[in-house]
Design brief:
- It is elongated and about 70 Å long.
- Helices cover 51% and strands 7% of the residues.
- The strands form two sheets. It has a four-stranded antiparallel beta sheet with strand order 3-4-5-6.
- A hairpin with a 5-residue loop joins strand 3 and strand 4.
- It has 14 helices and six strands.
- The protein folds into two domains: 102 residues, Alpha-Beta Complex (Sufe protein. Chain: A); 191 residues, no CATH class.
- It is α+β, with helices and mostly antiparallel strands.
Length: 359
């Protein structure tokens, strides 16, 4: 009876989180799980003939099942005399700092100036540091070019996943399963190092608002983010089987990095009083409520691009994020997991979906 009540409590928490994120997805993107909920039913034309005789191919509806990290990455391809003359990314929900890495990489030049057939045969690699976004962009370009020559449109966003995806999946699987059977401090240290090295600095894979909103808006069509999906399973499904907080404790690379920093200074710790902990915990809840209002109203929805997780992508992260990340890392030497305990909006949302006291 007690177990059934606990499961019902967790399910109620999951429903609450779903409604919270659904509202955010609808307000920000006008989409919910891949369905366009906007009143404007007019769809962008796939082909447009320009006054100079060139043709523009728009992949907004042509490749709407292809997603980057946060949603579709449509492009406009201009073709004149059977030659690709320009490729322009359209509006998308990708994190600006990461997507600018794609646009500044010169990837569009790989197709520009080539005939449509030559461009279709061009083997273009994803951009390091922005794999999800660039893989989706490549798939959109191929879909647009195939449409131009009336070839069947196929999307292969998983063709270049690479070894990094498989290794990151393995690390998540280890963190999800092994701690359920092995209680060993040495193994915990190994897992934390793997989380930070593989999930953090190497692949930049984690659960954050950007990832959750992208899936809530556009569904699970992004095969490149399969590791994130696995993380979400641990974050939201594991608690239903009696393992609340497992993601934050065992998988999250940012949490692992803070704990590793804490290990380096086991003696000179700052002991916060119960009153201070209570005040800081209330601050976290108030901060979360304010941030959600900003997200729902659109007043400052871009705050999700500045969660500290993105600091792992050192070359692409915003300067403010890197500074804040360094500050919390330094603080972690003296206070255990300060960001997780007193700030993290994503962690607060996860807690609300589980049978965990948020105090």
């Amino acid at each position: 009876m007690k177990r059934n009540k606990k499961i019902l409590t967790n399910l109620a928490g999951l429903l609450f989180v779903f409604l919270v994120m659904a509202a955010a997805a609808i307000m920000r993107d006008g989409h919910l799980l891949g369905h366009d909920l906007t009143r404007d039913s007019e769809k962008a034309s796939v082909r447009t003939v320009n006054p100079d005789g060139s043709i523009t191919v728009n992949t907004t509806t042509l490749a709407d099942d292809v997603s980057g990290y946060s949603g579709p990455v449509p492009v406009e391809i201009t073709i004149a005399h059977d030659t690709v003359t320009a490729i322009r990314p359209l509006d998308n929900s990708e994190t600006p700092g990461f997507f600018s890495r794609v646009t500044e990489s010169g990837i569009m030049d790989r197709w520009t100036g080539k005939t449509v057939r030559e461009a279709l045969d061009e083997d273009v690699d994803a951009v390091t540091g922005a794999t999800y976004s660039s893989t989706a962009l490549i798939a959109n370009v191929k879909a647009g070019l195939q449409s131009y020559v009336d070839a069947p449109v196929t999307h292969d966003t998983a063709s270049k996943t690479g070894m990094a995806v498989y290794i990151s999946l393995l690390v998540v699987a280890m963190a999800a399963i092994i701690p359920l059977f092995v209680k060993n401090k040495n193994y915990r240290l190994i897992q934390e190092i793997l989380n930070v090295g593989v999930l953090g600095f190497w692949t930049g894979t984690f659960v954050d608002y950007t990832a959750m909103l992208g899936i809530m808006s556009y569904g699970l069509g992004a095969s490149a983010s399969i590791t994130v999906i696995a993380m979400l399973v641990v974050a939201f499904i594991w608690p239903l089987f009696g393992h609340p907080g497992h993601y934050c404790a065992w998988v999250c690379p940012l949490g692992s990095l803070q704990e590793l920093a804490s290990r380096c200074n086991s003696r000179r710790k700052i002991n916060l009083s119960p009153k201070a902990v209570k005040i800081l915990t209330r601050f976290r809840l108030i901060l979360w409520a304010v941030l959600m209002i900003l997200l729902w109203t659109g007043m400052f929805a871009s705050w999700i691009d500045y969660e500290l997780f993105t600091a792992f992508m050192v070359r692409e992260a915003a300067t403010a994020t890197l500074i804040a990340g360094a500050a919390f890392l330094l603080l972690s030497f003296f206070i255990t997991r300060p960001y997780c305990r007193f700030v993290c909006p994503t962690g607060t949302l996860l807690r609300m979906s589980q049978d965990i006291d948020t105090k």
